[in-house]
Write a structure and sequence with these properties.
This protein has 23 helices and eleven strands. The strands form four sheets. The chain has a four-stranded antiparallel β-sheet. Helices cover 61% and strands 10% of the residues. It has four domains: 3-104, 2-Layer Sandwich (Gyrase A, domain 2), CATH 3.30.1360.60; 120-292, no CATH class; 334-474, no CATH class; 485-556, Distorted Sandwich (Glucose Permease (Domain IIA)). By secondary structure, the chain is an alpha+beta fold. A hairpin with a 2-residue loop joins strand 3 (57-61) and strand 4.
Length: 557
């Protein structure tokens, strides 16, 4: 079976499990999950969906079905599924909007992550360059070599560019995300950073005194919004809604002239009178709250955050952290949340390995656990959390404790990042090299990984369901092999018989489904290889399951 045929079979199986084609309202995908909007979620057979080929986990959010296939694979599955269901023109935003009626709070918070999608490449590039230049600045060979010094200086300039205009970039992306014209977001971002305004950092330190305007008796301080990420998000949203409003209300004959004029002017008034002051207070509250936690709760505060962060991922509320991280960098120059989120993720990866150790002989467990763990190494925890840990519960608890233990090391080593947006192995590049940052980054992740593994194995001993499952697997593994069960096994087809390892389908060639043979037929007559009963036929008629009289199971594919 080719990959295309396999994905087609998966698509047909999914449609059958969700109640038919008429129940599929739309589909999209993210980095790891196929997302299907259902008209009636009660028709979905979750147990059957969980057994779909290549699926690593399934869960329901409102009327949105999410199936975890993993990075890369989900793109291929979606391409076939969307064509099969005629939903290929829908976007992830369309799916989120369709589910908004069911879960408005979650959709609103997740929309924050969409704001950073367009600008994330620039942020990651700058953060990676910042990490590299931070290391090179300490090398005497760079300082003493004219060419290396020049290259490092240019790299440093490249790394600081995005952070200097980050409010503008966020305002542009927010305006675009919430339905306004992107250029108006750029205009408002430029106003926030206008050189005629007092620099926000200089005003805060007392280096400059800002001009004060009086509007109807109310004082307005003419201070810029350098580092104002929260303000940029707020004014971007307001700009988009004003743009939509004026486009709808102003007559077409003068719309091109008056609509953007009214949008920019009203947005500017709101920026300096309401949005700016409110956003500044909110930013200060968030930053000071996190800093207060680290200063007053110390190691306990770090452990609590690292321990519960992946629980927050399950709720979908973690998308808001991007804005908070950006604000932390703008206010303090360092991001201590990034390594905490990274070790929290690695704790879940360790829990998956722990579960895999307990169930190594289970083929299905290997299929799910190995790709799920590899995903965590690149900063993607959903396959691990939803595919394994949340399903069996005790690995989730073990992973959280493992993350909390590593959070203590993050605190003790004063570990932080110079950027945000990437964790785990790629996150090493943006770790702050100060205080042996790279070494401590590796140590913290090893603690989380080891903690997740060990605690999963330990907690399994106290879990009744786990003990029952392992007992059943032990009985299954103790069953005699096919050769021992069947004395006579006839060829189901006339033709050339070869080893199953020569099969073009890697699932069979690697004996994932067990041992077998490959036959190149010389005629089209198919017979049963044993005396038994047909117990399964796949809807496409390409696979037949037979139970022999003595209980052995055979698949003809």
């Amino acid at each position: 079976m080719s990959k295309q045929e396999r994905y087609q079979a998966i698509s047909e199986q999914i449609v059958q499990c969700v109640g038919g084609m008429d129940n599929v309202a739309g589909s999209a995908h993210c980095a790891t999950r196929l997302r299907i909007m259902l008209k009636d979620s009660s028709k979905a057979d979750m147990d059957a969906l969980d057994r779909v080929d290549l699926c690593k986990g399934v869960f329901m959010t409102g009327d949105q079905l999410q199936m975890i296939f993993g990075a890369g694979l989900v793109n291929d599955v979606y391409d076939v599924f969307s064509k099969y269901t005629h939903t290929e023109n829908m976007s992830l935003t369309d799916i989120k909007n369709a589910s908004a009626k069911k879960n408005p709070l979650q959709v609103a918070i997740k929309s924050l992550s969409d704001v950073f999608i367009d600008i994330m490449p620039g942020i990651l590039a700058a953060a990676l360059l910042m990490g590299v230049t931070g290391v090179m600045n300490n090398w005497s060979v760079v300082q003493n070599n004219e060419t290396l010094h020049a290259l490092n200086r240019l790299a440093s300039l490249a790394s600081s560019g995005i952070f200097a205009i980050l409010p503008l970039a966020v305002c542009y992306s927010a305006t675009k995300r919430y339905g306004g014209k992107a250029i108006l977001g750029i205009v408002m971002g430029a106003i926030m950073l206008d050189s005629s305004l007092a620099n926000a950092y200089d005003a805060a330190s007392g280096a400059v005194i800002a001009d004060v305007l009086h509007l109807f008796g109310f004082p307005i301080e003419m201070i810029g919004f350098q580092g104002g990420i929260i303000v940029a998000l707020m004014i971007g949203y307001v700009t988009a809604k004003l743009d939509i409003f004026f486009d709808r209300k102003i007559p077409d004959v003068v719309k091109l002239l008056l609509s953007p004029l009214c949008t920019v002017f009203v947005a500017t008034l709101l920026l300096f009178t309401v949005i700016g002051p409110l956003g500044r207070e909110l930013s200060t509250l968030i930053t000071n709250g996190l800093v207060w936690t680290t200063q007053n709760l110390g190691v306990i505060g770090y452990m609590l955050f690292a321990g519960v962060q992946q629980i927050i991922v399950i709720t979908g509320l973690h998308h808001i952290f991007g804005a908070i991280e950006a604000q932390l960098i703008a206010d303090t120059g360092r991001n201590f949340l990034n390594p905490l989120m990274s070790v929290a993720l690695m704790g879940q990866g360790g829990a998956v390995i722990g579960y895999l150790i307990l169930h190594w002989k289970n083929v299905r467990a290997r299929e799910i656990c190995i790709p799920s763990f590899l995903s965590t190494l690149f900063g993607i925890s959903e396959p691990a959390v939803f595919g394994v840990n949340l399903r069996y519960k005790y690995p989730l608890v073990a992973g959280c404790i493992g993350g909390a233990l590593a959070g203590a090391w993050v605190y003790l080593s004063n570990l932080a990042a110079l950027g945000f947006g990437t964790t785990a192995v790629p996150g090493l590049a943006i770790a702050d090299p100060a205080n042996n940052g790279y070494v401590n980054y590796v140590i913290a992740h090893l603690i989380a990984l080891a903690g997740g593994i060990v605690l999963t194995v330990v907690l399994a001993q106290f879990n009744a369901e786990e003990r029952k499952q392992r007992a059943e697997e032990k009985k299954l593994n103790a069953l005699p092999t096919l050769d021992a069960q069947i004395e006579f096994f006839y060829a189901p087809l006339a033709g050339e018989v070869r080893s199953v390892t020569t099969c073009s389908d890697p699932m069979f060639a690697q004996k994932t489904m067990g041992d077998g043979i490959v036959i190149t037929p010389t005629d089209g007559i198919l017979i049963s290889p044993v005396n038994g009963k047909v117990v399964m036929t796949f809807p496409t008629r390409h696979a037949i399951g037979i139970a022999a009289e003595n209980g052995a199971e055979i698949l003809i594919h």
